[in-house]
Amino acid sequence: MASKYARLISCVVVIVLILVSMHVTAKPAAAATTCPTQQLGDSSRDAQALKFLSDNKIPLSVVDYIHTNLPLQGRKPILQWLTEAGLPKDQALKIAGDAKLTDQLNAILYPAPSRELLSKAYAVLATYNLKPEALFTILPTINDAKAYSAALKGLGLSPEQTMGFIKDTQPLIDAANKAGLTKFSITLEAQEVLNKHNFNNNLQELAGVMDNPTKLKAALVASKLKPEDVDAIVTAFADLHKRGLTGRMLNGWQLTQTVYNLEGAGLPAKAAKALLKQGGKSDAISKCLAASGLSGDMAKLAASHQNGYLFGNGPLVTEKKVADYEEHEVIELLDEYGLKLADLADILAAGDDEALKALLIKDGLSADDADSFVTQFNGDLFSQLVDGEDIPEFISEVQADESKVDEPAPSSNDEGDPGSPDQPDSDTGSGT
Fold this sequence. Notes:
By secondary structure, this protein is an all-alpha fold. The protein has 3 domains: 35-113 and 183-317, no CATH class; 130-178; 320-405 and 416-428, no CATH class. The chain contains 23 helices and no strands.
């Protein structure tokens, strides 16, 4: 009898061991959260930011608190943010009451590649007795000489003043074009509309509904705006959408800011894609940045920037959205100059700007067009984030996407989300 029970117990033990073994075997491996080691470059911007914080006795935890809560609570007066973050009231009052200190702190809290250029542009406007809002009249015309002159005349400038203004702003326009920022200037107008009508969150929070007026209105209503503010924003955004403001463009602008923040910490643009693989998890992002070579407060500030602006209240930009933006960005540029998708490999392999210009001229472009193409291409995110070895796979993916677009869509009563990255739509190709 005893041996019978012993055999039974042995069988049970074997079965349990088998089940445990199956469970362990079936358990998926943990996702990697580290980034490949990067070559650190100039990190002076973040180093200066940390020096400013130290000199003014502002703990890095204050910056991190604001970055963490900004996507959830929207923008607030700097005094309110500082006191909520735990800064002593007398110190917060001193900073908030000093315009220079406030501007320097805002540059750390809301970093953007356009900030310095905008400051210089506002200074030029003041020289000609123009109000800051005049910028929104001028921006849509800056790369059209006749329209630019007409806009300045409409603002009341004399012919002599117009010539002087154009001369003073041309270096800023050239810098914006070289950095690939000009096509995003419409986002300034959009954010100004939101500010004017009491929407305190960042424009990027609306990227997912930007291309669908019904969903856009619902999102604005949900934010508890007054009906008249909701209607005013929807009307203004309808016009801005016709001029190129799309969800796809906002994804590109968000990624541009992400790259800018990485460069401030001395990391290359390509590190952005590694961060996107972390799925918006703060700990994973911190580990990723540490693996890239950052340490101490430099790593903490870089993580704070990425957690607040790349992901915010959930991932603002995903790998899929980035791939969609890259695809449409480069295709639009190639189409503009009559180039083909198959030319990409040679373009990336050219080596330097002069060699690329020579190649383009050989392919039939004029010297001016070749020069213009190189400027735009260098400023585009595509050239910063894609390697030559990625081109065959990239072309295959584009061709696969094009074949899907050519297929007849199944009939559906679902309104969908036209123009979103998940549902490519020809109407959203205009990102510039």
